Amino acid sequence: MKKAVILLSGGLDSTTVLAIAKAQGYEPYALSFRYGQRHSIELASAQRVAAAMQVKEHVIADINLRAFGGSALTADIAVPKGRDTAAMEADIPITYVPARNTIFLSFALGWAEVLHANHIFVGVNALDYSGYPDCRPEFISAFETMANLATKSGVEGNKLTIHAPLIEMSKADIIRKGLELCVDYGLTSSCYDPGDDGKPCGQCDSCLLRAKGFAEAGVADPLLLHYDL
Fold it and tell me: Each residue of 10-24: pLDDT tens digit?
């Protein structure tokens, strides 16, 4: 089997990407981060997902983006709540973590080179998302070009490919694809500001986009059923 590093946050998108990689015959090595985020709920979800989906190995890397702050996810800044789609699309929100996907993909690149893996999967999406610049196709293409210039593997002709299978899918289409692959979305967590028990706030951008996706897909969100919401 071809080895692949899968960036796994524990959220809906990255879990779907893991399922897609497995369905395509890749041997998955999951990579998550304890990066100074304001809660550990999503990381616990990543551990549950990795176990349930039987990844070959799951590494949780410790880095401290809280040292820089600059985001509602890594500093004491309020998470925006109750915004409509127009407000989400108006500017880059304060939940954007500066250079996060560049940092995460760089770690994935390092591990992939050690594993002799030529594939990295990431769950970025440029349709139903919060306007983050590091979720766009141009970014993924540029990073792939850089990766093949910057590594021993790339220089020696072992081309690395960054797979972003969700990048042009709506949230509803992502959910439909995941259900087709038997993903248990009850294991995932998407909320930017959950309760200590993992209960989603229901009002942050991520919760609203997730709710929109399930509504458009015509199915109930099993995570909400778990909390009787």
Answer: 999 999 999 999 999
